[in-house]
Design goal:
CATH class of one domain: Mainly Beta
CATH topology of one domain: Jelly Rolls
CATH architecture of one domain: Sandwich
Number of strands: 38
Structural class: mainly beta
Distance between the termini: 115 Å
């Protein structure tokens, strides 16, 4: 007995030491210790990837009708299944069995992301965030499938492409659960403790390599004669101990409280006589019963509202709508089923639609008045500054505003035909006679060298008048100073002096009688000398007629063209700037009479809030708060005009 006890202790110590030496090593190929072989892509320990084939491709076929369309078939026995939409779209992936049972997204009901059992395996259904992500939806499964499954697309818009991939095993291959040097008929198979070491991460359909550990307890030579029946040498499999056996002592906790869960029997090693529990190593591990799955808590779970994700807001700014799907579902036999809505009547149904507002919309603002036409004649363009302004008053990109509502910032302008123009000087200050009928004069010239892209057809036949009649009163029996004509200016250009004769005369019929100068002393004597200001040598100011007033009321303006021209009508820059005639003046300064609309009234009491929130851009608020919105628009127009004048 002492020898047997020593032998048992030695065997346990040796086994513990051997296991401890393997803890730092990679376990692979079904946890076999001492092997350098690795698992191939097909799950075969030491395999060469020829025991299976990878089926993959991209489905890009376009559809024309909205609804379910079959895109790919997953055969029986497929593993490492990955069906992924290449880009986010409004389409959905669906999965059903050949028996007609819907697994994912059946009967026009869109399931929530999660795990769904079907075809003998568990599928993981993913749908990325509908707002922040551009990735498409997908479902994956480790397999193998127990039946043929069909993948469908619920088509609603252009197909961005669906990538599919799965692995199929070929026939007549060595089981991946046994190393190549251990055959299925080997009586020691029960000691291997085989477990599944395949990698569950199938994102790229690569099975992670594993390193086999050392095998403990494999007999290296026959048992030598002379050992007692109850003694086994180190390295030999222990004989079955008849003093102990396996006994069911209970069951595991049910995996679900309703809808059908699973539980397994629990076996413990006990003394055959006393039924007291002992260490499991005292029983034959090979003969330990296999716990079969048992159904439990098969009563259906209470129905519940399955709430889908909110769709994107229908508008990027302002008031929009969001929608989501709300379905009544019930879990039964590990399956989530869609049931009639009355099953959920004990629960308040969540809302399926709601309002949303990403932000207050930006609006267009006119920042400046129209600029002058780009050409002095002909058809050109005039511009003004139009900006997109956020609700905070900042200038933002034009795309932030409704492009269809943008005020025009460029317009054509017609400045008249580009022909030669009549240029005029001011009328002379004095009448040509001291009494009776006389004339006042001005210079009229047709500009001959105006540069234009249009053909010049002359100034036309309507030449402006060069003379205007004037009358200083009757001359009969009138005593008056008579002045002769001024002499030529003492200078040829710029400033000089002129002289004239001044005499006292009396009109008598057609004749004049010269009187003594004292007879005219009661009259102011005209000067005999005056300074004369001639044009700058070779040049003078000329100008065109005034344009039409820019406004019919409320202070408009009109313009004309002023040029310094030489005697031959060519542009010059030697005219006196102080004598330059005005080229712009105010007109129609009378105030405009505002139009009063009796129907434009505020219906709501809080229309000032509508104006502050910049909601007057919407027709509804512009109607119910008409007066407030109109006043705000006038204030805005006044401020814009002020900014433009600055």
């Amino acid at each position: 007995m002492m020898f047997f006890g020593y032998l048992i202790v030695t065997l346990l110590c040796f086994t513990t030491l051997a296991l401890g030496q393997t803890r730092g090593k990679s376990i692979g190929c079904d946890n076999l210790i001492g092997s350098d072989k690795v698992t191939d892509k097909c799950g075969i320990c030491g395999g060469d990837n020829t025991a299976c084939k990878v089926v993959s491709g991209v489905f890009k076929h376009p559809f024309s009708n909205i609804g379910y369309h079959k895109i790919v078939e997953i055969p029986k026995g497929a593993t490492k299944i990955n069906i992924t939409e290449m880009l986010k779209s409004k389409n959905y992936l669906a999965l059903r069995s050949r028996s007609g049972r819907s697994i994912i997204n059946g009967n026009w009901a869109i399931d929530r992301p999660g795990k769904y059992e079907g075809g003998g395996t568990m599928f993981t259904y993913k749908r990325p965030n509908e707002i922040s992500s551009t990735a498409g939806e997908s479902f994956t499964a480790d397999g193998p499938t127990s039946e043929i499954l069909d993948v469908y697309m619920i088509y609603q818009q252009s197909n961005p492409g669906v990538r599919y991939e799965y692995i199929l095993s070929t026939q007549n291959t060595i089981s991946p659960q046994l190393p190549p040097h251990i055959l299925p008929g080997d009586p020691l198979n029960g000691q291997l403790g085989v477990t599944d070491s395949s990698n569950t991460d199938n994102e790229n359909f690569d099975i992670a390599d594993t390193q086999a550990g050392s095998f403990i307890g494999h007999p290296t030579k026959p048992i030598p004669d002379g050992f007692p029946d109850n003694q086994v040498p180190i390295g030999q499999p222990p004989r079955r101990n008849l003093e102990h056996n396996w006994k069911q002592v209970g069951k595991t906790q049910c995996t679900a409280t309703c809808g059908r869960g699973s539980q397994y029997p629990i076996f413990r090693c006990v003394n055959r006589n006393t039924h007291e529990g002992v260490h499991d190593s005292l029983c034959d591990l090979v003969s330990k019963p296999t716990g079969e799955e048992e159904a439990c808590n098969t009563n259906p779970c209470p129905a519940f509202w399955d709430i889908g994700e909110w769709s994107e807001c229908s508008k990027t700014c302002g008031l929009g709508m969001q929608h989501r799907q709300v379905l009544c579902r019930q879990i039964y036999a590990n399956h989530t089923l869609m049931v009639q809505s009355y099953h959920c009547q004990h629960l308040e149904k969540p809302e399926t639609t709601t309002t949303c507002q990403m932000k207050i919309c930006s609006e267009w603002q006119i920042r400046t008045d129209w600029q002058p036409c780009s050409v002095p004649c002909g058809v050109g363009q005039k511009t003004r500054d139009v900006k997109c302004i956020s609700n905070l008053g900042d200038i933002v990109d034009d795309e932030e505003c409704n492009m269809k509502m943008k005020p025009s910032d460029v317009e054509n302008c017609d400045m008249g035909p580009c022909a030669k123009s009549w240029f005029l000087t001011q009328w002379s200050d004095k009448c040509s006679t001291e009494c009776g009928e006389g004339v006042r004069t001005r210079s009229v010239a047709c500009m001959t060298n105006y540069i234009s892209s249009l053909p010049l057809e002359g100034c036309g036949s309507q030449r402006p008048s060069e003379n205007m009649s004037c009358n200083n009163g009757p001359c009969e029996n009138k005593i008056q100073w008579f002045t002769g004509s001024w002499s030529q200016c003492s200078a040829e250009c710029d400033s000089g002096v002129q002289q004239r004769e001044v005499i006292c005369v009396k009109k008598n019929g057609d004749d004049f009688i010269v009187l003594d100068p004292t007879e005219c002393s009661f009259l102011e004597k005209p000067p005999k000398h005056q300074s004369c200001h001639l044009k700058p040598c070779g040049s003078k100011w000329l100008y065109t007629e005034w344009s039409t007033c820019s406004k019919s009321c409320d202070s408009g303006f009109r313009v004309r063209e002023v040029r310094c021209l030489s005697d031959d009508m060519t542009p010059s820059d030697v005219c006196d700037p102080l004598l330059r005639p005005e080229d712009k003046e105010s007109c129609n300064t009378q105030a405009c009479i505002p139009e009063i609309d009796e129907k434009c009234k505020d219906i709501f009491y809080n229309c000032n809030t509508v104006v502050q929130a910049r909601l007057c851009v919407y027709n509804y608020y512009r109607t119910v708060c008409c007066a407030s919105c109109v006043r705000a628009a006038k204030r805005h127009s006044t401020s814009v005009s002020y900014i433009g004048r600055r």
